[in-house]
Specification:
The protein is α+β, with helices and mostly antiparallel strands. It folds into two domains: about 40 residues, no CATH class; about 90 residues, Homing Intron 3 (I-Ppo) Encoded Endonuclease, Chain A (Alpha-Beta Complex). The protein is about 20% helix and about 20% strand. The chain contains four helices and eight strands, in the order E-E-H-H-E-E-E-E-H-E-E-H. The strands form four sheets. A two-stranded antiparallel sheet has the order 1-2. Bound molecules: zinc ion (2 copies). One zinc ion binds next to strand 2 and helix 1.
């Protein structure tokens, strides 16, 4: 397994010789040195626990909700989905009334490239609530869409 090149760090390599945590800190122009746990921001705490799968998914290996979603405390102490924190960190805030849809269908994935922003309504239609509208058909007996 290829490892991070920062001395003393043995996290798995992500890109440019760095692990996910250090890659992210470099991108933000922050120092590599982590003096204390208190210095870690929400994004650091998430990236520390991310493993990268071959298909590019960033799987959060920390605590998940009973439904398998990664739920963590943000820098203001509010509980948020980890992938939302990562997405907003890289791509900016998700507009009001919009939700993030996992294109890779892995709930623990935090790779911002694996998401699309959808309105709440689109998410329900597309989502796992059962019917895909395009595939519905009229029941010849009752005349209702099923
Ligand atoms: Zn590292
Ligand atoms: Zn993914």
């Amino acid at each position: 397994m290829k490892k991070c090149s920062v001395p003393g760090c043995d996290r798995k390599h992500l890109a440019k010789g760095l692990c996910a945590l250090h890659y992210d800190r470099k991108r933000d122009g922050r120092s590599f040195e982590i003096k204390s746990r208190y210095e870690l921001t929400a994004i650091d705490r998430i990236m520390e626990k991310v493993i990268i799968l071959q298909n590019g998914c960033w799987i959060y290996t920390g605590k998940l909700t009973s439904k398998g979603y990664p739920h963590v405390r943000d820098d203001k102490g509010k509980m948020k989905f980890a992938y939302r924190i990562v997405f907003e960190h890289h791509k900016g805030p998700v507009p009001d009334g919009f939700e993030l849809d996992h294109l890779c269908k892995r709930r623990a994935c935090c790779n911002p490239e694996h998401f699309e922003t959808l309105s709440h309504r689109e998410n329900i239609i597309r989502g796992n609530s059962g019917h895909d509208w395009k595939n519905r058909f009229r029941d010849p007996i009752s005349g209702r869409f099923i």
